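LOG
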Amino acid sequence: MKSLTKKRVVLFLLFIFPLICFLMLSLGENNFTKLPIVTERIIDVSEIDATNKVQLKDFVSIVVFLGNDVQANKSGLFNFNEKVYKKFTDYKKFQVLAIYPKGQEVEAEKLKQEIGAFTDMQKWVFLSSSKEEIEGFYTSFAYNEPLINLSSSKAFLIDKKVNLRGRIKDADSKDGMLYGYNMNSVAVLNGKLKDDVKVLYYEYYAAFKDRNKNKADRKEVGL
């Protein structure tokens, strides 16, 4: 029993406590600002999934587009795996969705094995779809940078309500709008995407805490 309690304390100190401290120090609890929605209600990937097993709703998802040349973005995907994915494997309702066109199954499986040699792939989801469905899904992001051969060097952050999250005052973007995070830039992955995933999870943590507080308040007044 003591061993189980000790394990829980260690897990809390390793994962939950650092997240709370980071957000409290960098944002301040009273000045907390939610991560901006840059595109509301994109198409849920369930609409292009022939297996009917994959969805964005109710998950915090990072979506990447592998394209016709799956190996082309391999270095960026390895960066992403090391700098972002590994930091969130223990977070609930977290997934990485890698989309590729039909016909690239062998290459996608090869990439999966290469990444899997260095990490637990339990929260990676590989999904094949048609060219038209992939383009339609991507178009719903309302992002003005087109896919190249159905591929992108960007990773896209989707919330549980299937909204595209990003930044509206990004100093490195021409118009301040950040729709996707450049996987070829370790600085972007470390300083933006990783932090923004933490902010998004804190939103859900804060909302959960508020709901519980409201329930307690209602009980106190007999509602």
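LOG (cont.) second protein
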Amino acid sequence: MLKNLPRYECLLEASKEFPDLDPSATEVFLHLLRTGDEAFRVVETHLASHDITQGGFGVLMALWGRCRGNQPGRDALSPAALAEHTGVTRATMTGLVDTLERDGLVRRHPDPADRRMVTVELTREGESLLERILPEHFRQMAWLMAPLTETERKTFVGLLAKLLQRAADPAEAPLATASTP
């Protein structure tokens, strides 16, 4: 991602050559991506200090029973459900679960209803890791959002929800056309 974003004037100039370039939309989009990259970097640095990746953290959080009102360590999900919940492919999930299991943070069990299937659950070690990570993780989120007032935060969430809804509907996306040489 670009570290130094183009000035609005440069986008205006580029729009003369590319009529589909909406300077204000492009400016917002680039700032959104740049900010997202920096927020990701803040979290990634913190997680790396605990020897866990963003993907592994996502799996642990998906299994963390308190997220759905269950008792910790009592919640188990199939790898397919974990993949769906975290937004990764099943193949990626297999690798994530393999690593987390190797590190003693999760364990696989045969599904009692269908022995061909397995479920994955958080181990006590996985729960302990989350208990160590989460306080600082939450402090970092609060620190990052501190410049925004409560009203601005609510507005921001609403705006992001609009963008998420738009991005999630590929039927409305403009068709990509192959450029001719």
